[in-house]
Amino acid sequence: MDWAVIVVLNVMFQPSLSVLFTVEAERTVYDSKFGEDVVMGCRFQPQLSNPQADLKVTWHWFTSTLVRDVYRMDNRKENLASRDPDYRGRVMLLTDELRDGWSKLKISRLRINDSGTYQCLVETEEGADYKTTTLSVVAPYKSVTKHIEKAAGGDELLLSCQSEGYPESPVMWQDGHLKTLNSNTTAVTTPRQLVKVTSQIRVGSSAKNNYTCIFTKDGSSATFKIPDEIPVPQKKNDALIVVLSIGVIMVAIIVAMLFYRRQKGCRGHSTRNLFVDGRGKSVSVDACSAKNKGNDEEITIFNEGCMEEHLGAFLKDHYSNFPLSTEVRPHCEAFAAEELPYRLQNNEGQPVSLQALLPEAGEVVFLEGPPGSGKMTANILVSSWTEDPTHAVSKLLNLSTVRFLFTVDCSRVKGDLFQEIKMQLSLMQKTGDELRTFLTSEALLVLDGYREGNHFFDESVRNFLMEREGCRVLITSCPGQCPILNDTVVTGRTLQIQNKVGRS
Ligand SMILES: *[C@@H]1O[C@H](CO)[C@@H](O)[C@H](O)[C@H]1NC(C)=O
Ligand SMILES: *[C@@H]1O[C@H](CO)[C@@H](O)[C@H](O)[C@H]1NC(C)=O
Ligand SMILES: *[C@@H]1O[C@H](CO)[C@@H](O)[C@H](O)[C@H]1NC(C)=O
């Protein structure tokens, strides 16, 4: 007998000699990125002889002091009750793989604190065994935001660079002659546990030079060209400008206040018309009219309260006066009902329902399609949001969680994101900061027909997306027109509208 035959015989007889049940981890370490998905696997042997046999699969995350239940299946039934809240809605077991002896766990939208040690335990009638594996979640430092300002003295400039990632990255500064410069770098942890790193240097404003900050962990960088990028000097008549601006703002506030009272009316008789003023107190409309006679600060607060109450109604009004939507509406409805359901796909090419167009809170959805299809889709969203819920389109797409819908037509942008929202939606009296307070999980921002190339707008969109808390964002574009944004937004989901299909 030669060796090969002995080995074969050995292997053949092995199972009958010992029914040793084993679990092996597919890998010892998984390296993944924040916001992406991971599938971790364990192989168990022998495989189940009977596909219906009892089977318990458990995944735990643990440290020396803490255990989190990630996934548990008892007798083929998923046990959701025991799941740690941190993992709810983000984990699934690839149950088809069980037949082939795999316990594969998929965790979606990875967070930084998903990192750590996982134990995979499998129990069958044949025995039980477990293994551990390690997950490490990092977030690359991608886009760098730069800022330049004149330092107090006037002869100096304060240059700063900021970016978010994980773990903390050192920042190195170099000038145009590759000389390394000393900097002041600070880091804070964001609610999503990313590290926001800010680094500053002070330089003279007279010498011509270039300064580059480099986030050395991932090599992202930004360069300041001095003196080209020095902010335009302020004029002597600063004080006059300030006084004039205050005057203009005051007039705008008063006009806006009158306008809203007339249009939507803080009508004194409605008892359900309660709203919360700037200090979190509930005030009645009567009280708000009374405050109206108070000082300027009170007027502003009053106006904000009204605004919040009525912004939704104001936007709906704005969209229904939008001439396009009345003309285009019948086309939209036909498109929504007859074409879109057959043409809308996820990035794996599987058809998805129209409801997939609504991003979850905090989610960014990219919708790619042939020219015109994005505009049509934006119109559908607008119609379904403004129409009453019994309307045909609203049945296909439920937008009842959206309190504020902001659409920006990107084909004609000139300013930054907030300027465009204000211009296009006639919200001129709002400041960027005020608008920001409305861009929460109750808001859907649609950037329609987005195409990279307007540096100013692109940068403001990137900054907004980095800082957005819960705002839902849908970006429509033709394929390949926003590559940088696609790279920057790590938590995005992509949908596609296929070219017209030949249906009979
Ligand atoms: C700064 O950069 C520009 C273009 O990148 C280059 O032409 C110029 O020579 C640089 N200046 C210095 C002082 O390094
Ligand atoms: C460094 O920057 C931080 C934040 O910008 C500032 O508070 C601090 O005073 C700076 N420290 C030095 C030594 O410049
Ligand atoms: C993990 O991070 C999330 C936010 O990203 C936070 O809500 C949660 O409480 C954290 N869990 C633990 C155990 O630290």
UniProtKB/TrEMBL annotation:
The chain crosses the membrane at residues 239-260. Gene3D superfamilies: Immunoglobulins (2.60.40.10), P-loop containing nucleotide triphosphate hydrolases (3.40.50.300). It is found in: Cell membrane. SMART domains: IG (SM00409). Its main location: membrane. The keyword Zinc-finger does not apply. It holds the Pfam family C2-set_3. The keyword ATP-binding does not apply. GO terms for cellular component: external side of plasma membrane. Residues 15-136, 140-223 form the Ig-like domain. It is a single-pass type I membrane protein. This is Programmed cell death 1 ligand 1-like. It comes from Notothenia coriiceps (black rockcod).
